[in-house]
Structures are given as C-alpha cells and as structure tokens.
Amino acid sequence: MRTPPIIHATREADSARFLSVEQVDLEFSNGQRRTFERMKPHGHGAVIVVPMRDAGTVLLVREYGAGVGRYELGLPKGRLEHAETAEQGANRELKEEVGFGARRLTVLHKLALSPSYMAHMADVVLAQDLYPEKLPGDEPEELDIVPWRLDELHLLLGREDVTEGRSIAALFMAREYLAGRFVRA
Amino acid sequence: MRTPPIIHATREADSARFLSVEQVDLEFSNGQRRTFERMKPHGHGAVIVVPMRDAGTVLLVREYGAGVGRYELGLPKGRLEHAETAEQGANRELKEEVGFGARRLTVLHKLALSPSYMAHMADVVLAQDLYPEKLPGDEPEELDIVPWRLDELHLLLGREDVTEGRSIAALFMAREYLAGRFVRA
Q1: A104-108 CB contacts, 8 Å cutoff, 24+ apart
Q2: Is the minimum CB–CB distance between A74 and chain B shorter than 8 Å?
Q3: Distance between B177 CA and the closest CA of chain A, angstroms
C-alpha cells in the first residue's frame, strides 16, 4: 500500500472559483411550485476511460481522492480541455495516467454525477488496441496500475476502496457492450 | 411521457447555504505538494434504495432532475434525517417515493459521488418483502413507478434518461448480491 499524503492544512474556500450554484424556480404540470438548487460545472465536460489491455482485462488506477481522503481504485478520468473531443480527451488522459495510447476509442454513453442537483456529465469512452505512450500530466505522483478481469467485476464490489458510482457503472456498461448486450444510442 | 415543469426563473445563489468548499494542502509521499479543492456536504448522509417487488423485479422511479433539466429513470434516494439509520431512511424514502414499506432492509455498500473532489457518500440499501404503505413526502408530484426485470438491466444502459452512475452501479451491485456473487464487507 502506498503511503497517503500528509494533510498540511484545510481551510474554507471561495466556492465561486470552483463551481456556481443556481436557484431554479419550477412549476410542475400539477401546478406545484418549487425552488431547487443545482450546481453548474465550470469547463468543457469530462471523460471516464475504460482501457482494455486485452479483450478480457481492464486497466484500473489507484489514485488519491482528496474528497474522500484515501486512495480509490477506479477508472482513469479527467476534464476535457478547450476544443477537445471526448475521444481526444480520453486518449490524453490515458497517456497521462496509464502510459498508453489507444488506436480505437468509442463513446459508449453519458453518465451524470447527480441528476437532481448537478449538471455535471461525463462521457464513458472505451479504449481498445492500446500501445505504450506516456504523456506528462499534472498528477502529483505516478498512479498504480491494476489490471482486472472483466469476468471478475463482482470481486470489485464491496471493496472499501471501490466506491465511485460512475466507475462501477462504466465497467458494467463496457462489459455489456463487449458482450454485445448493449447497443449505443 | 409526463409534461416537464416550466422554468420560471434561474438565478445565481449563495453556495454557502447549500454546501461548503474546502481547500486542502497535501504533501504526497514523493514530496510533491498540491492544493486540492473539495466539497463537503451538509446533513447526515444519504441512501439509494433498491426496492425488490419480487425476486426478479426492481421498482424504478421517474423523477424530474433539476440538475440535468429532464426526467431521469433511476432508483429512489434521499438524504437521511437527524438520528436516522440508513435502513430507517431507506424505508421512509421508499414509503414516500414508491408507496411501499419493506420488512427486510440490507445495507450493501457505500457509494461515493466523486472521490476526487466530493466527500458525499450514500448507502446502497436493498429493500425486500415489500408491503403497501404511503407516507407524504416533499415531492412536488407523484413519481411514475417503473418495474424492471433484473435480468434485463442491460436494456437500461444507453437510454437517454438513464445516466446516474450511482443508480446503475447500485442495480448491478444488487443483482450480483442476489446471485450470491457479492459478499458484503
């Protein structure tokens, strides 16, 4: 196990730099009115990458999650840069975080963080036909790469370091797609 | 299809009421330092409920998501109230949103919203042995209830109104649990 980072300080921050919160006044079709709050992300979107080392094996990364304060095992992901497509962003994140490029990139679907109160969406991108290529990223440390068999996804569930809904959803989505049981919209 | 609500107004809101944003100064084991931002939720936690009408059928709800601005098909969920356990909160949400109570409630696992920058966690609660009981909730309209066969989860994937990572993850988690392939930690 990797030594977790030292937390030197924690302080309140100005949320306006990070995201904006909106109030929305709604009138439902039955006449009921509500004011809901929702968060709007800054930026150009995000991707979650499912990198296939071979037909039966996905590459996971172990990354420190500042939100939960521990290492989390999941899929590589990141925010899109200006004028980047989902496929381009996925390939860049893959090179930065995992050290591979992909010759074949397929957008499977979009996943929401929380439909009720967040506008954030991420594209799930399946990456196949990998080849070694490393790009320098902004990660503070090299990520551990953990190969995992697609037919053993059930062994990931229940692990204390596997908790991200979108990663788990994207893994099952990719498995169903590769088995021919999920057709893209 | 239900008529979506009318949006009367949208305005910037004070984020401090809704959530707080923290900055965290970290030093990784290789000496690299970073300042990350993370969101801390208010409140007492949250639950995602997997209500089983019978051994092979889950009850989904269609609810307007103010974050994404459309109806989303997914699992009932909500925030815990003061001094409520996950099981109690799940049963209350089930009665409010679906009109059933459950004689058997099992916490399967915790799911994170975004380990990188959010502290939010929700308990996945499997609800079995249902009986009709309706509690008044704060929902602005009755939710459509949509029964779905567990052996047809793949037909949910790729639908434009099924995008929530945590709902999809919780559904596959429940299916693996009920098939005996997932053992709770």
Answers
A1: A104/A128, A104/A129, A106/A184, A107/A184, A108/A50, A108/A170, A108/A173, A108/A174, A108/A177, A108/A182, A108/A184, A108/B158
A2: yes
A3: 9
Please tell me the total count of domains within chain B: 1
Predicted model pTM: 0.93
Asked if residue A86 is part of any domain, the answer here is: yes
Q: How far is B130 from chain A (nearest CA, A)?
A: 25
- Residue at A32 is within a domain: no
**Tens-of-pLDDT digits for all 185 residues of chain B?**
678 888 888 877 766 566 677 888 999 999 999 888 888 777 889 999 999 999 999 999 999 998 999 999 999 999 999 999 999 999 999 999 999 999 999 999 999 989 988 888 999 999 999 999 999 988 888 899 999 999 999 999 989 999 999 999 999 999 999 999 987 76
Beta bridge partners of A107: A125
Taking contacts as CB-CB distances below 8 angstroms, the residues of chain B near A164 are 111-112, 114-115, 165
Instruction: State whether ipTM is beyond 0.95.
Output: no
A-B C-beta contacts closer than 8 Å? 269
Question: In Å, how far is B87's CA from the nearest CA of chain A?
Answer: 18
Query: CATH no. for residue A68?
Result: 3.90.79.10
